[in-house]
Structure formats: structure tokens, C-alpha cells
Amino acid sequence: MIVCVCHRVSDRDIAIAASSGCPNFEALQDDLRVATACGACRDCACAVFEESRIKGGAPRARGMAVAAQALLAA
């Protein structure tokens, strides 16, 4: 889903940045420009960033890793 309409930043973009070692939300803003125009997405973007840091990355990437592990185990 698109989180920041102004800069067309998706939840997946944020999750990838978080899992790639982005240290904090301010650095995320520098990298992706999320929540730097109108600011309406700031709360949502912060929540997605924190959730992604806790869970360890993009949902699709995690799903692919689990699928790959299952194939290797079989």
C-alpha cells in the first residue's frame, strides 16, 4: 500500500529500508523523503517503520525466505 502519496512511498519500500539497516525514522526521511511534504502520513510511516524493524523486513521477503527454507528442508 502507498503510505506517502506525496512521494509515492509504499509500506514495502519502508520495510526494505528498515531491514537494510536504516537506523531511525529521520534517516528514513532522508533516504525516501517519506513524511517530508504535507506530513499527513507521518504516524502511519512511523508505525510501518517500527513494525518492520521489529519483524525484520518486508513481509514478501520474509515469506520468500520461509518458502525457500521449506524447499531446502524437503
Task: Walk me through this protein's architecture.
With 74 residues, the chain is mainly alpha-helical. It has one domain: BFD-like [2Fe-2S]-binding domain (Arc Repressor Mutant, subunit A, Orthogonal Bundle). Helices cover 62% and strands 7% of the residues. The chain contains 4 helices and 2 strands, in the order ββαααα. The chain has helices at 11-19, 25-32, 42-55, 59-73, and strands at residues 2-4, 9-10. The chain has a two-stranded antiparallel sheet with strand order 1-2. Helix 1 crosses helix 3 (42-55). The radius of gyration is 14 Å and the shape is globular. The relative contact order is 0.19.
Mean pLDDT reading = 83
Give the name of the CATH architecture.
Orthogonal Bundle
Q: Tally the beta strands.
A: 2
- Portion in beta strands: 5-15%
Quick rundown:
This protein is mostly helical and 74 residues long. The protein has a single domain, classed as Arc Repressor Mutant, subunit A, CATH 1.10.10.1100.
